[in-house]
Specification:
4-stranded mixed β-sheet, globular
């Protein structure tokens, strides 16, 4: 007996049921196509590394006193226990001396193979660097992004835990207060048509005009033989951003400076 296909069976159904069946076929085909496309994208798109490394440098107000690696790890696990962000066993920390401490030296400091294992081990690792001469402390946060799903800790959570560790090292309790819980709280934000129109106005004429103007200005510089800026890291518009991207400094770590009020 010849095998009937699903489409042949649908033709024998009443019109309304037949229409529902055809719609079901379309949804199944669309879902299967989307799943196949997603799997294809996942197979072609690979992270360069399953680790995220974030570096910080802090100017200390007074003399730098660094404790042992065991004290740093105990503080990190205590921060994890008090905040409940991750399991204390997920965290590891160590400390060391680093002369001429800068953001670049912290960022490019060699990784300890006994501390940064290839697979498994703690999901979050904190490295604290101290420089007694310039009163600075460096921090490198390394977190796992691609092994066991239960061990993945995002960069924001890992950094938050590192800052709580610093509070405990300073002899203070972790400040777990959220801006949303403070007086006045955060007003609710409703995304309406006005915001959509403002966004489209900024993207379509705004960004496109800036990019076109930047390329036109660089073309004029090329025609006139105008040399590039002496310091391409000073980015303040679209043109200087493109010039920075084409310079040798494009792979340098980004630097964000935060200024805080010093305690009296």
């Amino acid at each position: 007996t010849p095998r009937r296909t699903h489409s042949q069976e649908a033709r024998q159904l009443p019109p309304r049921q037949r229409l529902d069946t055809v719609r079901g076929d379309s949804r199944q085909i669309a879902t299967a196509s989307a799943e196949a496309k997603s799997q294809s994208t996942m197979l072609k798109t690979k992270l360069p590394s399953s680790r995220l490394a974030l570096s910080f440098v802090f100017d200390m107000p007074g003399e730098v006193h660094n404790s042992s690696s065991a004290d740093h790890e105990a503080a990190a696990r205590e921060a994890a226990r008090q905040t409940g962000l991750v399991q204390p066993s997920f965290v590891a920390a160590k400390s060391s001396i680093l002369n001429n401490l800068t953001l670049q030296s912290v960022h490019h400091s060699p990784f300890d193979p006994d501390f940064h294992v290839a697979d498994g081990g703690p999901a979050v690792r904190f490295e604290f660097f101290y420089d007694h001469d310039v009163h600075r402390m460096g921090l490198r946060v390394v977190t796992s992004l691609g092994e066991e799903k239960t061990n993945i800790v995002d960069g924001v959570t890992a950094c938050r835990l590192a800052f709580h560790t610093m509070e405990i090292l300073d002899g203070k309790a972790p400040n777990k207060d959220s801006p949303a819980n403070r007086a006045g709280k955060i007003p609710p934000f409703e995304y309406g048509w006005r915001h959509c129109l403002n966004f489209m106005h900024e993207i379509l004429p705004g960004t496109l005009f800036r990019v076109a103007g930047a390329y036109a200005s660089m073309f004029v510089d090329w025609v006139l033989g105008t040399p590039p800026p002496s310091d391409p890291t000073l980015v303040n518009d679209a043109k200087s951003m493109f010039q920075f991207y084409s310079s040798s400094h494009a792979s340098d770590p980004a630097m964000v400076q935060v200024f805080g009020k010093m305690p009296h």
